[in-house]
């Protein structure tokens, strides 16, 4: 049986693989951006709380969970406001 092709000559499996890889690339780009924001927020919390990086991460992470807000979003607020905003 001949393999089905789409209009551009690629097979459906190959097209799906390309779409999957494009999605993974987009996710990695977002992760790299978030990593920088989270790192900056951890530095701010370390300075404000006289904390280690592990303690600052735990504070950011637990506050994120308590407030049901993603860590990258909370990190952005910490960076903008210079600390964890009031609830």
Automatic annotation (TrEMBL):
Q: Which residues cross the membrane?
A: none
* Record InterPro entries: ANTAR, CheY-like_superfamily, WH-like_DNA-bd_sf
Which residue intervals define the domain ANTAR in the entry? 18-79
- Source domain of life: Bacteria
What Pfam families does the record tag this protein with? ANTAR
Report what the protein is called: ANTAR domain-containing protein
Species whose genome carries this gene: Angustibacter aerolatus
């Amino acid at each position: 049986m001949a393999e089905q092709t789409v209009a551009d000559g690629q097979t459906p499996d190959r097209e799906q693989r390309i779409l999957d890889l494009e999605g993974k690339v987009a996710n990695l780009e977002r992760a790299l951006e978030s990593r920088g924001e989270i790192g900056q927020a951890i530095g701010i919390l370390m300075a404000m709380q006289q904390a280690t990086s592990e303690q600052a991460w735990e504070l950011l992470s637990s506050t994120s969970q308590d407030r049901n807000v993603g860590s990258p979003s909370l990190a952005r607020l910490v960076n903008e406001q210079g600390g964890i905003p009031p609830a």
